Amino acid sequence: MKKKFWRLIRRILLALFVLLLLYQAWIAAHIWWWVDHNPASSAFMHDRLEVLQDKNPDAHLQHKWAPYNRISDSLKQALIASEDAKFVDHEGFDWDGIEKAYEKNLKKGKIVSGGSTISQQLAKNLFLSSKRTPWRKGEEVIVTVMLEHMMEKERIFEIYMNVIEWGDGVFGAEAAARHYFQISAAQLSPVQAAKLAAMVPNPRYYDKHREAKGLLRKTEIVLSRMNDAEIP
Question: Per CATH, is 38-228 categorized as 1.10.3810.10?
């Protein structure tokens, strides 16, 4: 009886392992395809659309792809300065940033800083559900490694700027520029770019509170750091 039980357990574990490998292969195939093709949406966009349509069945996302060269360099500098100053140098993970975030969270007694790089944020946006699960962080690490090894930094950054959330149902730089300033992403000024970058950590809140003191203060900080930002 015990032998049958353990044989069953081994078969279940083997089946789970095979499914895990197939899932990783599925992710790798998507990343390989997106090296040369633009993703139409992301897992996070699907999640948000479902939430919006629960309230209004006719709801839709504001999203339009903008090629890398059609996005203001000011926005690129602002995002690097705000989200990931070492983006062009690291291989997906900013270990110093992670350590500082851990120390900050420990000091505050709660999570106030994540330390995620642009590559990690893209991994979450593209593939992972917004629901927190025990294996979510591990999967984020695997996807981040895949992105960094299969894509150039410029391509990672291009996709990131086109899929991140910038408001309630607003996704990507082009939609954000039009939503907030009625211009294209290519026309964003340094001040406008700094404000958009400052919104990234809490975009739905700042969409409704565009003159919040915290947002204005963060905008000034981002603006002061932009000249030092190295973009791919």
Answer: yes
- Residue 18 token pair: 């095979």
Inter-residue contact 203 to 166 (CB < 8 Å):
yes
3-state helix, strand, coil split of the chain in percent (to 5) is 65, 5, 30
Tokens of 210: 């565009």
Q: Where are the beta strands (DSSP E) in 16-169?
A: 62-63, 165-167
The rounded radius of gyration (Å) of the Cα atoms in the chain is: 20
pLDDT (mean) for 214-224? 97
pTM of the full structure: 0.89
Axis crossing angle, helix 2-34 with helix 118-127, rounded to the nearest 10: 110
Per-residue confidence at 46, pLDDT binned at 50, 70, 90?
very high
Residue 10: what pLDDT?
83
CA–CA separation, 175 and 158 (whole Å): 14
Q: Which residues partner with 167 through β-bridges? A: 170
Which H/E stretch holds residue 7? Answer: helix 2-34
Helix extents (H) in 128-212: 136-150, 153-163, 173-181, 190-199, 203-208
Residue boundaries of the structural domains of the chain: 1-37, 38-228
